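Predict structure. Chain length: 243.
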Amino acid sequence: MRPVAYLHEGEAPAFSPLLAALARHGGTVVPSEPGTALEAALFGLCPLGFAGAWIEGEELSARAAGLLAELEPEARHALRADAVVCGYAGPRGLFLAPRALARLFERLVYPGVRVLWLGEPRPELAAGLRGVTRVDVAARLPGEGEALLGALPEAVRGELALRPEAVRALAARADLLLFTGGMLPNEVLSPYHTVLALAPIPKMAYQAVERVIEPERFLAERLALFVEEALGLELPPQAFYEL
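Prediction complete.
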């Protein structure tokens, strides 16, 4: 099995679970902090015999997308590459996060849910929400909220709420709260809610809702997709975390 690289700057939260999962199958993960040599690192992967690379962090993934000549449609649209795979034509950039989000909904969320998006606006993830009934958006600024709504698939596009009372009204009608980081207002949480957390949430939130799907679960889906794309090895999310 060809090795994969792990490109990061500073923290490396996905390295240990990726290494542990691949080590069980005889795989190797080589960490690297490329710094200003990111272009050399990306274009050296294939000649050096790597199957691909995981790219950690939004800033590094944006820089990688700007350097790679070949990008999958999701990566080209988002201007991010969170993974690279080596093919005959050289390194190809992927953006796996929207597909991982869609898989998470397929595996863990019952069909027909109404979603309220809370937290940081991340339009690059919007394509992962095609399978739900409706997505409402809570935003701090009108421009941010409108940009996020515009990125959502038209069939699921809901309302934009800016004022706290409007956010609470949308939360009362939502089945699932999609939290992407920042502040999570305690007053929007109800015992019937599921919280799909793509960022850490306060401990008290666990007591206020029916169910929390933790950020590690989203990361596990992304890693599973990376291993499948780079190595052709299909591993369940449980291979990366005890879930």
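Summary: The longest strand covers residues 83-87.
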